[in-house]
Amino acid sequence: EKGGYDYFMLKEIAEQPKAVADTLLGRIDGSGSLTLDEVRIPPGVLREIDKVVIVACGTAFHAGMIAKYAIEHWTRLPCEVELASEFRYRDPILDAQTLVIAISQSGETMDTLMALRHAREQGSKVLAICNTNGSTIPRESDAVLYTHAGPEVAVASTKAFLTQLVACYLVALYLGQVRGTKGADEIRALIRDLSSIAGAVERVLGTMEPVRELARTLASKRTVLFLGRHVGYPVALEGALKLKELAYMHAEGFAAGELKHGPIALIEEDLPVVVVVPSPRGRSVLHDKIVSNIQEIRARGARTIVIAEEGDEAVVPYADHLVRIPATPTLLQPLVATVPLQVFACELATARGNDVDQPRNLAKSVTVE
Ligand code: F6R
C-alpha cells in the first residue's frame, strides 16, 4: 500500500530520512567508529588492496561515480567506476589486489551480475552494496553491505540511491579505517556529519512546494539541461535520468566545466537549466567557476534553476529560481542535492499525465543483458 500517497514514488521519496538513518543503524559503535562486521573480507586482505573498481548500472552507477570521490579522497586508493554493461567487454585489468564493489538495489541486474562474475574469475574480491536480502548479486559476492532502505516499489530509484550513497561512504571510511589513511578522530567527525544527514534530508523535503510549482510550469518544455561539478556532476546526471525515465523528456546532465567545450551551443532563450552549486566553503574555486557558468548561460537567455546551499549569496543575482539545501561537507552534498531533483522529475511527469510508478518501457529490475 501507498500509505496515503498517490504514488509509491512519493512515499519512497518521503521515506528517505528514515532510510538514510537505517543504513547507518548498527554500524557505528559507542565510541563513534565503524563496525562493518558484515564486510567479511578480512582487514588483512583490505590492506593489500591496491585499486577499487565499482560496477553498476543506471542510478546505482551514479552512486558509484560519487563514491569514487570519497574513496579516493579518504583512502588514496585509485578508484575506477564503470558501467557494468561495458565492463567485461574491454578486458579490464583485475587481480587479487583489486576490490570490486557491485552496487545494485535489486541484486538481480544481469549486467552487474555478469561483471562481478567476471571479476571473481580474475581472482578479485567482490563486495556488494545491495538493498534486497538474499538476492543473486550478494549471494555471489564475497561480502555484502545491505542498504536497509526497505522495499522500493516505484521503478525509478530514489531512497535506494540515497542509501547506496550512505553505504558507499561507510565503505570508504571503513577502508580508510583499516588501512590507516584516516585517523579515528577524523572518522568520528565524518560519521557525525553522516548522522546529521537524515535531518537535513527531512528539512529539504519540507521546502519542496516551490519546486513542485515550478515543475508544473515546465510541463510543456521539450528539454531540460542539468549542470554540476565534482560530486555535483553525477547528481546532474541523476537529475537528468529521473526526468528522462519519468517525464519522457529530453534531459541531459553535463559537467559544468565541459560547457565551453560544446554544450553551451545548446543554450537558448527560456531553456530550463538546473545547476547544482558546490558549497562555497569547501572547494571554493569550483563554486566560483560554477557561478560564472550560471552567469554565462543566463546571459544567453536560459532560465536558471539553481540548487545552492543556504547562505550562498553569490548565486542570488543569477538565479531565476533558487532552491536552498542545507550546508553539508562537500562530499556529502549529493545526499541533499538529489532530493529536489527527484521531486522535480516526479511532479513534472505527473503534470504531463504519466504514471510515475510504472514508466513506459521500463522494468524495476533488468534481468537480461
Ligand atoms: C533509475 C533506475 C535504474 C536502476 C538500474 C540498476 O531510476 O532505477 O537506472 O538504477 O537499472 O538497478 P539495480 O540497482 O537494481 O541494479
Automatic annotation (TrEMBL):
Keywords: Aminotransferase, Cytoplasm, Glutamine amidotransferase, Repeat, Transferase. The lineage of its organism: Bacteria, Bacillati, Actinomycetota, Actinomycetes, Kitasatosporales. It comes from Streptomyces cahuitamycinicus. The chain holds residues 247 to 615 of 615 of the full protein. The keyword rRNA processing does not apply. Catalyzes the first step in hexosamine metabolism, converting fructose-6P into glucosamine-6P using glutamine as a nitrogen source. It is an enzyme of class 2 (transferase). Its EC number is 2.6.1.16. The keyword Glycosyltransferase does not apply. One of its GO terms (biological process) is fructose 6-phosphate metabolic process. It is found in: Cytoplasm. It catalyses: D-fructose 6-phosphate + L-glutamine = D-glucosamine 6-phosphate + L-glutamate. This is Glutamine--fructose-6-phosphate aminotransferase [isomerizing]. One of its GO terms (cellular component) is cytosol. The gene is glmS. Residues 41-181, 214-359 form the SIS domain. Its main location: cytoplasm.
